Amino acid sequence: MRHRLVGELMTSAVVHVRPDTAFKEIVRLLAEHDITAVPVLDDEDRPLGLVSEADLLLNEAAREDPAGLLLTPQLAAAERARSRATTAEGLMTAPAVCARPEWTVVEAARLMQGKGLKRLAVVDEAGRLVGVVSRSDLLRVFLRHDRAIREEIRHDVLRRTLDIDPDTLDVRVRDGLVTLTGTVDHRGQVPVVERLCRSVDGVVGVNCLLDHRRAGTGVPDPAR
């Protein structure tokens, strides 16, 4: 079994800025390239942080309403300082949260979820930027064809990992939903088969209807 890697899904041609890049130049780059954020790199192309549309909008949000109809915004000291910044160094959210090209989709997704991020800078062993991976990039695994998912389950999960003849079970995949029917030798194989099928890239859910012939595990749990 093999999860797709960040290096396969990331955007390699990354628009970036330097710490001294001006506010309006950053806005221009976002509009010109139809993107929502840019990494800020040092002289050795190592990510220092990220400037997003949200960072730039602090400039507007911090302004007082000239008509006097809105209350003066109450911003934290750090946000107020960023709202007055005129270059990337002051605007950026730092430090940069980074991933590696050899990470799996699962690793990157967990980091994004844990940090509440929409994208990650991807760096090489020297810490230099090699790409950016976004939520939409990771979601591309769900564009896999049902036939490809079924073949991976049959050959990688059943035959290669669990040594189960795939022709003894019925594996159906529709819109990423896997349905498993048939009978396995041991009761302990049922949850293992289900868990490994859920871990296949592109699987939305698993409807496990497997029966078993006898008690016991039959095979060691490959997840341990």
Structural features, described:
With 224 residues, this protein is of the alpha/beta class. The chain contains nine helices and eight strands. The strands form three sheets. It has a three-stranded mixed β-sheet. A three-stranded mixed β-sheet has the order 6-7-8, covered by helices on one side. Strands 1-2 form a two-stranded antiparallel ribbon. Strand 6 and strand 7 form a beta hairpin. The mean pLDDT is 89.
Secondary structure elements and pairings:
Blueprint: H1 6-9, H2 23-33, E1 37-41, E2 47-52, H3 53-61, H4 77-83, H5 88-91, E3 98-99, H6 105-115, E4 119-123, E5 129-134, H7 135-138, H8 146-161, E6 169-174, E7 177-186, H9 189-198, E8 205-214
Parallel strand pairs: 3-4, 7-8
Antiparallel strand pairs: 1-2, 4-5, 6-7
Keywords:
about 220 residues; alpha/beta; three-stranded mixed sheet; about 35% helix; elongated
Count of individual helical segments: 9
Percentage of residues in DSSP E strands = 15-25%
Radius of gyration: 24 Å
Return residue spans where pLDDT drops below 50 for at least 5 consecutive residues: none
**How far apart are the termini?**
15 Å
Indicate the structural class: alpha/beta
Mean pLDDT: 89
Number of strands: 8
Helix content: 25-40%
Task: Order the strands across the largest sheet as they lie in space.
Answer: 3-4-5
Order of helices and strands: HHEEHHHEHEEHHEEHE
Shape: elongated
Q: Mind summarizing the main beta sheet?
A: 3 strands, mixed
